[in-house]
Amino acid sequence: MENNALAKIFYETAELLALKNENPFKIRAYQKAANNIENLSNNLEEIYKKGGLPALQEIPGIGHDLSLKIEEFIRTGKVRSYKELTHEFPKEIINLINIPGMGPKTALLLNKKLKIDTPAKLEKAARHGLLRNIPGFGIKKEENILRGISLKKRSKGRFRLDEATEYAELIVEKLKKSKGVKKILPCGSLRRGQETIGDLDILITSTDPKPIMDAFTALPFVTNIIVKGETKSSVILKNGMQADLRVVNPKSFGAAAHYFTGCKAHNINIRQLAQKNGWKVSEYGIFKGNKQIGGTTEEEMFSKFGLQFIPPELREMRGEFEAAAKGKLPKLIELSDIKGDLHSHTNATDGSNTILEMAQAAKKLGYEYILISDHSQSTRVARGLSIKQCLQNIKEIHSAGKMISGIKILAGAEVDILPDGKLDYPDEVLKQFDLCICSIHSNFKMPKEKMTARIVKAFQNKYVHIFAHPTGRLIGEREPYAVDMEQVLKAAKKYKIALELNAHPKRLDLTDIYCRRAKELGVKVVISTDSHRTSQLSLMKYGVLTARRGWLEKHDVLNTLPISKLLLRLKDK
DNA sequence: GCCGTTTTCGGCCCGACTGTTTTCAGTCG
């Protein structure tokens, strides 16, 4: 049973309860529970098997009632109360709520008055001017709804971290020159390093917001202005992404940065802590009565509550408050800790650069080593190397090594795990590599048990050291293959295989949640870029962000080690 | 529906913006 399947049921329950005009706090309880379930690093079914209902109730936001629903879902695959709710409403009505500008109240009203229950019917009614006659509606609201529908149609949903980062940098570059801008900081899920970004949140401090708002909404790559107020504006960029700008007074910088970074549940928690102290927290600061007692710096947003500073990547309500209160937050890995890249391709297969060029680029980044790991023979699309070519390639890696100083070029390969779990080269070849990566490039559609067994079998080969992009997903393009990651992680521990966190922003595989589980189980991680050209070596930063989200520290990641220790660790079988 | 070193009942984050409201509801983050 997947945690996310149940999280989705709880999220939808919340939406349906909102349509019923239920107690808003009950609705929030469902949302909170769904959010916490999504963020769990282990499987609900395993938790239940081990500890039953009491174990489920130890999960924050899960009490008596919800634990019973989880139990029901584990046993039957269904939640009856949810099923019953869905029968009370037309099937597509949730799609109405998800149109920007529409909410449960509006959806329900339109359903009652005009029998609208699908986005298509809503669009038709709005085009025919039928909405403006309803009490509380007018021409503008009608136009807004039409705009929301077209926005929804054009929106590609979420954006990759690298694309969002590039736009954020562009906006910062353009706006930092505007008159009166003191500080400018991209916040939101981008700052938390989430793998995909819904919209950009940019924070600026200034005492004169108006001209900054004007400059923002007039940026050349802005296609629509959604709202434009005194201190807050929202626009659509030409790639379809929404960007929000907030301008606050410099004395509120810390509180605003904290607030706009989120996540939402994390913010609510800080505000509740404030209440307990008789204070109030908003994006403008920490207040005792009308007096601001903190929030000029972001550090104060934690120190005032007796907490360690919580880095943005940890602000996901995954136990960061408990750890910060005890002074037990991890000292997160940093980009500067990385001493080498352990996954790279050259023009021997599907890369663009030579061995030497890749090594020179890695040296420029200050690395001590780089592993050249071209594809093995079965990966024909990538022009994988035959045994003969592979042996030749090892020689060429060694001779390239003699032509450069200050960096060690390691000879390796990214060897396919064949459908039966055997490796794509015989042991006599494998043993000649300094380090060997294995990974899946074919037969993605195997049943879960077979795929898991395939991977675990490969781990038993003593010449294999690293398992690359462990779930095979491509963000927004390809789902992960069916695989029991808990078993894979445990096998990695048993056979001393390091799991790769592939830093390419379209992979980020391991995910943050699996990184954390790996750490809990004592499985070592390597962060590599899988570069196919020299410029991609700089994608390492996205891998490090994901590792930080997974609470990883320097000692959890093997390519923070100097070369001698690295080889000792990986070859210790 | 959850939660508790003030509480097992009575709370539950806080503010901006918009439209149509004559004092505020709905939506969003």
Outline the low-pLDDT stretches: none
| Largest sheet composition | 7 strands, parallel
Order the strands across the largest sheet as they lie in space. Answer: 11-12-13-14-15-16-17
Number of helices: 24
Structure write-up:
It is a single chain. The chain is α/β, with parallel strands linked by helices and 573 residues long. 44% of the residues lie in helices and 14% in strands. The chain contains 24 helices and 17 strands. It has a seven-stranded parallel beta sheet. Strand 9 and strand 10 form a beta hairpin. Helix 1 packs antiparallel against helix 2, helix 20 packs parallel to helix 21 and helix 21 packs across helix 22. The protein is globular, with a radius of gyration of 26 Å. The two termini are 33 Å apart. The mean pLDDT is 94. The structure holds one DNA strand of 29 nucleotides.
How does the SSE layout of this entry go?
Elements: H1 3-19, H2 24-38, H3 44-57, H4 64-76, H5 80-88, H6 93-97, H7 104-114, H8 119-127, H9 139-154, E1 159-160, H10 161-175, E2 183-186, H11 188-191, E3 196-197, E4 199-205, H12 209-217, E5 222-228, E6 232-237, E7 242-248, H13 253-261, H14 264-276, E8 280-282, E9 285-288, E10 291-294, H15 300-303, H16 320-325, E11 340-341, H17 355-364, E12 369-375, H18 387-402, E13 408-416, H19 427-430, E14 435-439, H20 448-459, E15 466-467, H21 485-495, E16 498-502, H22 512-521, E17 525-528, H23 540-549, H24 563-571
Parallel strand pairs: 4-7, 11-12, 12-13, 13-14, 14-15, 15-16, 16-17
Antiparallel strand pairs: 1-3, 2-4, 5-6, 6-7, 8-9, 9-10
Helix pairs in contact: 1-2, 1-7, 3-4, 8-9, 20-21, 21-22, 22-23
This protein binds one DNA strand of 29 nucleotides through helix 2, helix 4, helix 7, helix 9 and helix 14.
